[in-house]
Design brief:
The protein has 289 residues and is α/β, with parallel strands linked by helices. Helices cover 20% and strands 38% of the residues. It folds into two domains: 15-126, 2,3-Dihydroxybiphenyl 1,2-Dioxygenase, domain 1; 141-279, 2,3-Dihydroxybiphenyl 1,2-Dioxygenase, domain 1 (Roll). The strands form two sheets. A nine-stranded mixed sheet has the order 14-15-16-13-9-12-11-10-17. Strand 3 and strand 4 (60-66) form a beta hairpin.
Length: 289
């Protein structure tokens, strides 16, 4: 799938990463059933590759593999060129963090590493454009992934200091402790977020669609497939994006979003109160941290 980078418009702070979420590999109890759900819910074309199921559609890709549910087995971010990989490699060397280099199933050149919670992240240049299925649903570009962690501060430090992400917003509790952090690697408010929880796990992934009318069309599409909205429509505080959520068969939240905030590189870090209104300025906020 084609990836459009707008780093020129965004500007490029020193030692920062320019990347866009490209694929996710999710642990599934029954990968075939989860793949069938994503085919219905998100309009993916499904193929089997060894023991995994590959879900592909314009602007999005999932790999569904047998494993513990609510587990992020790996995440792939597309980068604009080999220079971006070299920069990341130099930061990993400076931090004395292990990595591997080389081609992967979806990237012609890539660097792969683990974060402090053991999640695998690959940053690479997409392989030759694959034949993309015809879009049967409104637009949906894979845009961000969010994890829960027992030690989010350690994850945030790694993502900023080593990977080169930039902090957009923090959500703070009454004692000033950070409950959630939103991190960006482009002009978009966040491509990754992490929140404090009693366990390390995948929370949700999100697809950015074109506008408010497309949110309506997605809700109508879910209705036609007898898939209930679990949350929303609403509007998040951090990122200011409109949203709806459904559940996949493994209990993961799946978000469809629009109007995600576009930011400049010199944007100050935002601070938010840990309350329902921060999660949803329109109504009920489902606090998970
Ligand atoms: Fe989200």
């Amino acid at each position: 799938m084609a990836v459009k980078f707008v780093a020129d418009r965004w500007g490029r702070p020193k030692d920062s990463l320019v990347a866009a979420l490209y694929y996710l590999e999710l642990g599934c109890t029954e990968p075939a059933a989860t793949a069938a759900f994503y085919g219905r819910a998100m309009g993916y074309g499904i193929t089997q590759q060894d023991a995994s199921w590959i879900a592909e559609a314009p602007g999005r890709c999932l790999i569904l593999s047998r494993g513990a549910p609510k587990t992020l087995l790996s995440a792939g971010f597309a980068v604009p060129d080999v220079g971006e990989i070299e920069l990341l490699q130099s930061r990993l060397d400076a931090a004395d963090r292990p990595y591997t280099r080389g081609a992967t199933y979806l990237f012609q050149e890539a660097i792969t590493l683990q974060d402090p919670d053991g999640h695998t992240f690959t940053f690479g240049i997409p392989a030759q454009a694959r034949a993309e299925p015809i879009e049967r649903v409104p637009p949906a570009r894979l845009q961000h992934v969010v994890v829960a962690s027992r030690n989010p501060a350690r994850i945030v430090k790694f993502f900023i200091d080593v990977l080169g992400f930039t902090l957009s917003d923090d959500v703070l509790d009454d004692e000033g402790g950070v409950r959630t952090s939103f991190l960006r690697c482009s002009h978009e408010h966040h491509s990754f977020a992490v929140f404090l929880a009693p366990e390390d796990r995948l929370d949700h992934h999100c697809y950015e669609t074109s506008d408010w009318n497309a949110i309506r069309d997605w809700a109508d599409h879910m209705a036609s497939e007898h898939i209930r909205l679990q949350w929303g429509p609403g509007r998040h505080g951090p990122g200011n994006n409109l949203f709806i959520f459904v559940h996949d068969p493994d209990g993961n939240w799946v978000e469809i979003s629009a109007e995600l905030e576009v930011v400049g590189h010199d944007r100050p870090v935002g601070k938010w109160i840990h309350e329902q209104r921060t999660l949803n300025s329109w109504g009920q906020g489902l606090l998970r941290s």
